[in-house]
Automatic annotation (TrEMBL):
<dbReference type="InterPro" id="IPR003739">
    <property type="entry name" value="Lys_aminomutase/Glu_NH3_mut"/>
</dbReference>
<feature type="signal peptide">
    <location>
        <begin position="1"/>
        <end position="35"/>
    </location>
</feature>
<protein>
    <recommendedName>
        <fullName>Lysine 2,3-aminomutase</fullName>
    </recommendedName>
</protein>
<keyword id="KW-0004">4Fe-4S</keyword>
<dbReference type="InterPro" id="IPR013785">
    <property type="entry name" value="Aldolase_TIM"/>
</dbReference>
<keyword id="KW-0411">Iron-sulfur</keyword>
<keyword id="KW-0479">Metal-binding</keyword>
<dbReference type="GO" id="GO:0051539">
    <property type="term" value="F:4 iron, 4 sulfur cluster binding"/>
</dbReference>
<keyword id="KW-0408">Iron</keyword>
<keyword id="KW-0732">Signal</keyword>
<dbReference type="InterPro" id="IPR058240">
    <property type="entry name" value="rSAM_sf"/>
</dbReference>
Amino acid sequence: MQNPQASSSPSSRCRYHLALTALLLSAILSSFADAFTPSLHRQKSRLLLVNRALSSTTATSLAVLSNPLASSDLDQNYGGLFTFGVANNIVPTDGMLKLPHHERYKAISLQAVDKVAERHPALLPHLHDVKLAGMVFPFKASPYYVDELIDWDAEDVRQDPFYRLVFPTLDMLRKDHRSKLEAAYAEGNPKKLLGTVDEIRADLNPHPAGQKDLNSPKDNSLTGVQHKYSETVLVFPAAGQTCHAYCTYCFRWAQFIGDDELRFAQKEAHSLFRYLSQHEEVSDILMTGGDPMVMKTKSLAQYLEPFTNPNFLPHIKNIRIGTRSLTFWPQRFTTDDDADEVIELLRRVHEVGGRHVAIMAHLSHPRELSTSKVKATIRRLQKEAYTTIRSQSPVMRGINDQPEKWRTEVNMGIIPYYMFMARDTGAQHFFDVPMARAHKIYSDALRSCSGLIRTCRDEGWIGRPFFAKYHPDAVWFDDLVPLDGMELPWDENGLPREVPSTVY
Ligand code: SF4
């Protein structure tokens, strides 16, 4: 487990090293780049022809291989400049927060990883790994995540949970896929390389969820609406089908490499509202993505503003927003140009519209919650927007296969909600945690928290399943009889039994 302070100290320590390494850096970079892409440089003219015939994402990946020093894309949702390397500089004064207004989101794409290596030389030995793996898996990071969360001073940065969370590695590929990709790369034939990438992607079960076919309303205007549970409708707003960064373990990874079959998105809100008006059994809307919080407030308001009117679809009581932005780009709620507007919108949906607004926050690790920027965001969402924050995340090996996170969350007023298992897609084998172990992590997490989130009184019995024979007239525990070979957690007098020493 990493030092909780590590989120702020690595950047500053790196700056000391940076002065010494800066003189050497350009020479190292150019020789490294030459070593990395000799054959592709030779085939530059052929590559341009190939690129025209390929999907933009794959072509982008190739451009990275052929031109490692290319500059990064601007994310279409944001503009302006970002000042790299800023430390956490939110200063609480008399209960008010003074927030700097100079940071603008700018996505770090695969083309920009060399720039990251300039700031964080620990990345240099892994550039080839990241770039080649990044041909198969989508890569995007936020400056905040890269500069303020990854512990670049770690002995092996690849073991840092936040590095693993956003930087792809060839270890995410099965051995046969990896050999195939490396062989295709060594051959220096771009067309073959791209074909190999496509073959590998197709082998990684890119469509595990079947969301287009399952529970979709039979209405052509509802291209991004899924009526999954009788009381809950999922909405995938078109402008929210990306994220501030991409998780290496994302089960929707194929959506981010331009897979048209996964373009499941709602282009406008009116047909959604029409559908909801015909379904009074629906009480909840879950806005999801991607990440709806990458949307500018103006776009988000198309979906949420009507709910500031208590008479509008009054059967809709709960609005849930699934988002990773609290820790991928906390500035979304504090210093972005329209941060105040989004807080105000959420507040009015709650206070004026009378709806319960829940932020379903994807949070992976307690260290994510340690920075002043994230703390300020959480405070604003709770105290100014009056939202409830619930946390959820998959349990991923090497990232968060530890129980500590929930305790931190409870102490911040966040309600732990779900733990998910790695799905059968992408790099499942690299991140998977066996169910028995996940169950222990879940039980230990529950046990580590106060009764505020526990629905089980006796902590010794958390995570120890037991069964009793069905007894329709039982009114108290000691009326029940255990199934053969099982023990109940209370004795014949209804008193807690001593906890068995081993279960796992
Ligand atoms: S935030 Fe969610 S949707 Fe976005 S990459 Fe991560 S897991 Fe996938």
